[in-house]
Amino acid sequence: MTQVATTPDHFGARLAKAVAERGPLCVGIDPHPGLLDAWELTRDADGVERFARTVVEALADRVAVLKPQSAFFERYGSRGIAVLERVIRDARAAGALVLNDVKRGDIGSTVEAYAGAYLDPASPLCGDALTASPYLGVGSLAPLIATARAHGNGVFVLALTSNPEGPSVQHAVAADGRTVAQTVLDEVASLNAGYEPYGPVGVVVGATVGETGHDLSRVNGPFLAPGLGAQGAGPDDLRAVFGNARGSVLPSVSREVLRAGPDMAALRSAAARAADDFRTVLA
C-alpha cells in the first residue's frame, strides 16, 4: 500500500535535517562494565548516571543521533530506568534525536504497549525512534509503525545484522526465492513509499556484512549501520555494503568514541573526527 507523507515533521525528514546540520553520526550510549571501569566509575546506577550524563553533556548539542542501549540501564532496575528517562529527556532538549536501542518485537497488545512506551510522547521513555525485531513477521510491528507515524517518530527494523550468527536466519531462502532479509527490506520499502526525502521506517544493516547480494536500493528509508570501529568495520566498508544507497546511511559508533572519555573535550573531538570521516565516504 502506498503511503504518502510530505509534511516536514515526519521522522525521515527530521533525521535528514539533523544529519545535514550535524553530520552523519549516531553515537551509542553503552555504559557496559568495561567502559565504566575505564572511566573509573562504579558498576552501579550512580556510575551509569555519571557516564550517561557526561556523554549527553558532551555530544547532545552536536551529533545527529544518540542511541542509548536500554539493557545497560535496565540491569540496574528502577534506578537505571530513571537514568534512561533523564538521558532521553536531556538529549532531546539539547537537539539530538534519540534512538532507543531496545530491539523490541511481539504481537497484539504487547507490541502496542511497547509502542506506547517508546514512541508516544506521553511516556517518559519516548524518544524519536526505536530498534525493532521483525522475526515474528514485519506485519507484527504494525502498532509500532502506526504509533511512530502518528507522532512523527521512527522505527529501525533489523535486517542484516553484524553478528556472525545472523546469516543463518537472515540469509535463509523462502518459498518465493527471496531471503528472509530481502523480504524484510521489501516490506519496509512498501511502508516508506511516497515519503520524501525518505520514510520513517529504517533498517539495520551491519557495516561488517560485506557484499551480500541483497537489494537495498528500494528501501527509501534510513540505514542504521552498526559494526564500525571496535567491531572491525571502517568508513570504506560502507561503500562495499551500501553502494549507491550509502547516501541514506547513518553510521553508528559506540566504543570508538566513548573510549575517549570521560574528558568531554576528547569525546567531542572523537565524535567530530568520526563524523568527518563518514561524511567523506557517504557524500
Q: Can you give me a brief rundown of this structure?
A:
The chain is an alpha/beta fold and 283 residues long. Helix content is 43%, strand content 14%. The protein has an eight-stranded parallel β-barrel, surrounded by eight helices.
Give the arrangement of secondary structure elements.
Layout: H1 11-22, E1 26-29, H2 33-38, H3 45-59, E2 65-68, H4 71-74, H5 77-93, E3 97-104, H6 108-119, E4 129-132, H7 142-150, E5 154-160, H8 167-170, H9 180-192, E6 201-205, E7 223-225, H10 235-242, E8 249-253, H11 255-258, H12 264-282
Parallel strand pairs: 1-2, 1-8, 2-3, 3-4, 4-5, 5-6, 6-7, 7-8
Describe the structure.
There is one protein chain. The protein has 283 residues and is an alpha/beta fold. It has one domain: TIM Barrel (Alpha-Beta Barrel), CATH 3.20.20.70. 43% of the residues lie in helices and 14% in strands.
- SSE string, helix = H, strand = E? HEHHEHHEHEHEHHEEHEHH
* Uncertain residue segments: 1-6
CATH architecture: Alpha-Beta Barrel
Total count of strands: 8
CATH class division: Alpha Beta
CATH third-tier fold name: TIM Barrel
N-to-C CA distance? 31 Å
Shape, per Cα inertia axes:
globular
Q: Helix/strand/pairing class, anyone?
A: alpha/beta
Radius of gyration: 18 Å
The CATH superfamily turns out to be Aldolase class I
* Percent range for β-strand residues: 5-15%
- Largest sheet, strands/sense/barrel: 8 strands, parallel, barrel
Number of helices: 12
Average pLDDT = 95
Pathway: Pyrimidine metabolism; UMP biosynthesis via de novo pathway; UMP from orotate: step 2/2
Keywords: Decarboxylase, Lyase, Pyrimidine biosynthesis
EC number: 4.1.1.23
Protein name: Orotidine 5'-phosphate decarboxylase
